[in-house]
Amino acid sequence: MDNKQDILELLRSVARGQTTPEDALLSLKEEPFADLDYAKIDFHRSIRQGAAEVIYGAGKTPEQIVGIVKAMGERNCRNILVTRIGQEAAEELAAAVAVQYHPIPKLAIAFPEERPLRGRIVVATGGTSDMAVAEEAALTAEAMGNQVIRLYDVGVAGLHRLLASLDELMSARCVVAVAGMEGALASVIGGLVDCPVIAVPTSVGYGASFGGLSALLSMLNSCASGCSVVNIDNGFGAGYLASMINQMEGIKEEER
User: Could you tell me which residue ranges the PurE domain spans (predicted)?
Assistant: First the structure.
């Protein structure tokens, strides 16, 4: 099934009793994808997972990125995320399609489209140096339809800065805590809030931080309940997971 008409025909087949609902669901989950030789674009990811495929820009040529984005745009995909894309590649992409480029996190949003923002996700950083990873998380969550509150430079070296934002923290459905060095921010926030905390270790720090490994291990060993941990510098993964948590909470509230 390559278009809406094919899906509509499948649904009509279910209505006629020629296809079981279970078989139709399986077909929708399994198809389709487009083979561009250098990439196989999964057009039904939004049906299976609720969000369209995201393009990891590092390691891809500008031509490959443009080709993938154009193919997705032709299928009416919007707010297409391209992570870890450099300035030169972003400029080539912008020459081909509508793009919003954010140089700090090196993230592009192709075919940007405004959408209603739901719930509230807080993205907090230990320091200003963590902003690149934090912005990747925040922009990912916003592109997926979530309201995001940014609390930057509220690390444990000056705890009063974090405590001054308790209202924002307490009203969040999910908090993304981004920190390098010893990574203590996630544990502190985890001990204050009643929502899930997604800890993001960053590679910020001096030699003994081992490129973020120290923060990663600290976050994994957190004594605060409700903390989960993503990979080092994985702002995208944190923003995506925060969106899933926020959207699920929104559905629960609507059902009530």
Answer: 119-251
CATH class belonging to 118-255: alpha beta
- The SS3 call for residue 197 is strand
Spatial separation of the C-alpha atoms in residues 117 and 250, rounded to whole Å: 11
Sign of the Cα pseudo-torsion (65, 71, 73, 79, in order): negative
- pLDDT of amino acid 29: 66
Name the residue with tokens 């592009």. 108
Cβ(202)–Cβ(131) below 8 Å: no
For residues 31 and 1, is the Cβ–Cβ distance under 8 A?
Answer: yes
The whole-model pTM stands at: 0.83
Structural domain spans, the chain: 32-110, 118-255
- E strands, 28-94, in order: 33-35, 40-42, 55-56, 80-83
Distance of CA 54 to the CA centre of its chain: 9
Q: Is 46 in contact with 73 (CB distance < 8 Å)?
A: no
- Classify the C-alpha dihedral 240-245-248-253 as positive or negative: negative
What pLDDT is attached to residue 253? 61
